[in-house]
């Protein structure tokens, strides 16, 4: 059986996630957008930046999960952080597209509008207030929808499989070191 997480550790985890997501949002709101760039170059650079961030965080957090006393909690943190990077990454791509070609969406997107749109696409709510108007934006939104499905299923499974293995190793080492199954 997995040990219960002490309240202090849980509060630290929540604070860590809030701080990281806040830093990601602050960075997103202050990274300049070059309005003179082409849609293709804007999308490629924004997508590469998001992909590098997701891979870097995932590698770092995988190591952290394996060393954590509470790997399932660390796995949950990883999921939230990677999801935040994923959404902010797509928001940055949408913002870059809109800045490069304002008629790409039904209305020009500002930073808040781009985050809002990325979240509505992820959640499949699709209020219809912002819609893709160009073929490249439709392709990108379609890609996000398909990636969302894989991301939710794949990331969830992968992160929690890593956390469960780390949790099993810890329990086995506790049993081996004490000779007790508890």
Task: Give a brief description.
With 182 residues, this protein is mostly helical.
- How would you sum up the major sheet? none
Tally of discrete structural domains: 1
CATH class: Mainly Alpha
Any low-confidence stretches, pLDDT <50, length ≥5? none
Give Rg in angstroms. 20 Å
In N-to-C order, the SSE pattern is HHHHH
The CATH topology name reads: Helix Hairpins
Give the total of beta strands: 0
CATH architecture descriptor = Orthogonal Bundle
- Helical run tally: 5
Mean pLDDT: 83
Helix content: over 70%
Structural class: mainly alpha
The fraction of residues assigned to DSSP E strands is under 5%
Structural summary, described in words:
The longest helix has 44 residues. The radius of gyration is 20 Å and the shape is elongated. The chain has a single domain, classed as Helix Hairpins, CATH 1.10.287.70. The chain has 5 helices and no strands. With 182 residues, it is an all-alpha fold.
